[in-house]
Structure formats: C-alpha cells, structure tokens
Amino acid sequence: MRKITIAIDGYSSTGKSTIAKQLAKALGYVYVDTGAMYRAVTLYAIRKGFVSDTSDNFTALVEALPNINVKFVHNEELGFSEMFLNDENVEKEIRSLAVSRQVSKVAAIKEVRTKLVEMQQEMGKEKGIVMDGRDIGSVVFPDAEFKVFMTASPETRAHRRYKELLDRGDDVTYEEVLKNVRSRDYIDSNRKESPLLLAKDAIEFDNSDMGLVEQFERMHNYALRIIEKE
Questions:
Q1: First to last CA, the chain
Q2: Is the pLDDT of residue 229 over 90?
Q3: Which of 128, 136, 193, 209 has the most CB atoms around it within 10 Å of its CB?
Q4: Residue-wise pLDDT tens digits, 89-107
Q5: DSSP β-ladder status, 88-89 and 80-85
Q6: Which long-range CB contacts under 8 A does 89-96 form with residues at least 24 apart?
Q7: Chain Cα centroid distance, residue 81
Q8: CB-CB neighbours of 77 under 10 Å
C-alpha cells in the first residue's frame, strides 16, 4: 500500500495537532507540527529583543536566521517529538501566550517562511507524513493527496486554548486569549506571504460541536479511503 501526504491546515486552536498526531500514530506515519517551528523562531526573536508588543526589528531577525537551528527530537519516554531551538528543548516555552502574541507576525516574514518551508518539504519527500500548519496544502505540499482545513468559532477555540493555558499554570484571562485568537486569525488570513486559506481541493472540517473521538474517526476514515484508491 502506497503512502500519501496528509496536509492539515486551519485556524489556531482548532485541534490540528491533536488530530494530526492521532492520524500519524494510527497510520504509522511521521508527524510534523510546523507551528512549533514558527514558534521556536519567534521565541528566539523574543529573547533577542527583535519582536515585542511595542516594537519590532524584522531586519535583525532576518539577518540572524543563519544562527537559528530548529529540529524535532523524539522523546521515547513521552512517545512524541519535542521542539529544540539551537539544541535547547523549548517545547513548553513555545506554547506560552507570550509566544502566541508574536508568532503570527514572525510567520508573515518572507525569509522566515522560505527557510522553514524548505525544511518542511525536505521532511516530506518520502511521503508517509502528516503535517499541520497554515499553508501546508496550499504552499508546502500543494499536491498532497489528502488536504483538510479545520475551523471552529473563535469563542470555542478561545475556550479550548484558555483551558490548556490554565492547566499549564499560566496566569491569563479568557478575554486575553479570545483577543489573541481573533488577532491571529486576522494576521494569518491577511498576510502577504502564504496567507491562511482554504485550498480548493481541501475538505473543510468544522469541529465546533464535535468531540475528539468523532473527529478522529471521521478523519481516519477519509484517509483510509484515499489510501485505498492509490
């Protein structure tokens, strides 16, 4: 049975990574969280003072790109890969609201996208991969056999993200999270470089009122039908 490429795009906090991990595990595929890659670059930029709530120096960030190394390292104990930035495990830190506030504008930088898209395409050369992000089906793998575009209401996504952050011990309010979700939606959808959009051959998947089990079963069945056609 031939392997395929599965591209999962969509808005923030729609559960793309959760579904992608489940599919990869069930199919025996490699899972790649491209959002973690952009978050790692954003964390580097925050640490260096290149981006903040009050000022940005994108030129300095672009010049520093050769010094930024991001990679996934599999954690045998946890059973999944974690993001490393210049050989430092930053898996927890990149999930903070501080990074979420800056990541969309960093991801809009052409040179950043070029660097990371090249890495992502290299990872998927052999197929048998599930990759999630914002432009996987439209830019990274336009010929992917299975494309999904995930969506849900901003309020639903904010509630999900708010709960995740509280469970991590972060000191945030629901209003802050909702504002961040709406801001990221706008930036992701309106940026010049690889905007978030529904690819013409993607399946739109609204999971506002859907549980994890139902989501997975539907996605898995879609994938199996496509694989069996190959």
A1: 8
A2: no
A3: 136
A4: 999 999 999 999 999 999 9
A5: antiparallel
A6: 90/40, 90/43, 91/36, 92/168, 93/43, 94/36, 94/39, 94/40, 94/42, 94/43, 95/39, 95/164, 95/168, 96/170
A7: 14
A8: 5
Please say whether the beta carbons of 61 and 51 come within 8 A.
yes
* pTM given for the model: 0.85
CB 135 within 8 A of CB 38: no
In CATH terms, the fold of domain 5-211 is Rossmann fold (3.40.50)
Q: Where are the domains of the chain?
A: 5-211
**Distance between CA atoms of residues 30 and 23, nearest Å:** 10
Backbone angles phi, psi at 132, to 5 degrees: -120, 150
User: Quick one: tokens of 123?
Assistant: 């990872």
Residue the block writes with tokens 């079963």: 217
Q: What is the tens place of the pLDDT at every residue in 142-180?
A: 999 999 999 999 999 999 999 999 998 888 999 999 999
Structure tokens belonging to residue 230 = 């190959």
